[in-house]
Amino acid sequence: xxxxxxxxxxxxxxxxxxxxxxxxxxxxxxxxxxxxxxxxxxxxxxxxxxxxxxxxxxxxxxxxxxxxxxxxxxxxxxxxxxxxxxxxxxxxxxxxxxxxxxxxxxxxxxxxxx
Length: 114
Description:
Elements: H1 4-19, H2 23-36, H3 41-53, H4 57-67, H5 77-89, H6 93-111
Helix pairs in contact: 1-2, 1-3, 2-3, 3-4, 3-5, 4-5, 5-6
């Protein structure tokens, strides 16, 4: 099994691949990490972002739904925004608006605005 430093390095490599536009390499690496660490929140978020960027909204929702079992995604602004975008692309506007409203509300809470 890999130690924490090795996992962190692999996650960083996956992130770097993604940001440099090597989406397929990033996905393969992140899915490999996920096979070693099922439910890894960081990998699930990155895979959701990659699938959203690649136009695979249904897959994005699958990854975001997997987060429900591993953390508190309703408290994560990024997750709420990705969910709203994926729902909008799937032509589910009412659900997208709700997710976006949740995102805006969370943003105000984090910023400390009333």
